[in-house]
Amino acid sequence: MLYSVDKKGFYGDFGGAFIPEMLYANIEELKNKYLEIIDEPDFQAEMNHLLKDYVGRPSPLYYAKRLSQHFNARIYLKREDLNHTGAHKINNTIGQILLAQRLGKTRIIAETGAGQHGVATATVCALMGLECIVYMGEVDIARQAPNVSRMKMLGAKVVPATSGSKTLKDATNEAIRDWINNPTDTHYIIGSVVGPHPYPDMVARFQAVISEEMKWQLKEQTGSQDPDIIIACVGGGSNAAGAFYHYLDSEKVRLVAVEAAGLGVDSGESAATSVLGTKGIIHGSRTLLMQTEDGQIIEPYSISAGLDYPGIGPLHSHLIVSKRAEAISITDQEALDAAFLVTRLEGIIPALESAHAFAAMHYLKYRSEDVIVINLSGRGDKDLSTYIKILES
Q1: Has 149 been annotated as catalytic?
Q2: CATH class label, 56-87+208-392
Q3: pLDDT tens, 123-156?
Q4: Which residues does the chain have with pLDDT short of 70?
């Protein structure tokens, strides 16, 4: 595949493993064993069983009739919001918890922004009886309170990150520090296609079930396994990586990555990395990164906790720079408007992250006969307090 990771962990100019010496053994162990382990028949059998009977896969591909009429296109929604725990994140945590068990790890750490990955990690740890510590920015703990409660009920310890912007970037920093201090018994379940190799490739493989299902579902419903356009929101970008995965080499399928513009790309309060970012290193990989001229990270902002990150995964950086994917930046207000539009037209309350993907329809050029798949990556329960403020204002 043109867009696969190479042996050194790079997608074009992006990726790699830039890590402290204390983590070298862990990363090498993962790099040397992950492909072998996930290809084992018993691993595949256990994972497929859990995805079917525990997660509830396959997730439906739903023809959104009223939304299609509104935009004058053929719009299908990949319903990742219907998975157990309410988002796509569980696909990856199922895979990584099975991997961790086979590596003999007994303690699991994770970072989370919107809380969906934290909930998914706490869920699989409860399922497998493993200790779980989740790092979460203090700001995100306040704005995603329902998910914090879920994690605690599942038995996870939620540790606030109080440095920097007190959001996803800072939670990731704290999780990496923990891993450095506990390298032997601990596995770090990274929630997105970020971090040092092999994480971006490994997470993409676990999320690839999304596009794997899309192919046969589209064939069943439209007569062709290829849509014209796939739209997905991108913070780190795991749901997008999963939705794009089996179409990366199908150049006729347009891939659209939707980022958070926050208060506006040029407002100083944004997370539009594809526009504002330059090549740099964050959390162990070289990627596009919002940074000053001397390499200091610029604090991102988005109303959506899951998109509030100063970089994007190296795969997405490569796709955007090589022009394989289009990047669209959506403001807070546009995402909120899209969330209410989808809710009122289809009776589906989307997560704020997913709402950004819907808002991209206003900026796309397309034909009325085009088949467009929007990856509905998560449900909006966790964002109800934000939505209610809009209703009451």
Answers
A1: no
A2: alpha beta
A3: 999 999 999 999 999 999 998 899 999 999 999 9
A4: 1
- Which spans in the chain are helix H? 24-38, 41-50, 65-71, 89-102, 116-128, 138-143, 145-153, 168-181, 199-207, 209-222, 238-244, 273-276, 314-321, 332-346, 352-359, 384-392
**Residue 217: its pLDDT value, please?**
99
89 is catalytic: yes
Q: Of these residues, 317, 329, 354, 377, which one is catalytic?
A: 377
Cβ atoms of 141 and 160 within 8 Å: the answer is yes
Report which residue type is found at 39: D
At 68-123, the pLDDT tens digits run 999 999 999 999 999 999 999 999 999 999 999 999 999 999 999 889 999 999 99
Active-site residue identified among 31, 78, 89, 382: 89
pLDDT score recorded for residue 1: 58
Q: CA-to-CA distance for 2 and 8, rounded, in angstroms?
A: 15
Let me know: does 118 contact 124? Beta carbons within 8 Å: no
Domain with CATH 3.40.50.1100 in the chain: 20-50+89-203, 56-87+208-392
Q: What is the pTM (predicted TM-score) of this model? A: 0.97
Q: Are strands 371-376 and 74-79 parallel, antiparallel or unpaired?
A: parallel
Of the candidates 111, 174, 213, 346, the residue annotated as catalytic is: 111
Catalytic (active site) residue 215: no
Q: Which pLDDT value is given to residue 143?
A: 86
Q: Quick one: CA torsion of 10, 13, 375, 173, rounded to 10 degrees? A: 70
Q: Name the DSSP class of 51.
A: I
CATH number of 20-50+89-203: 3.40.50.1100
The residue with tokens 């959001």 is 167
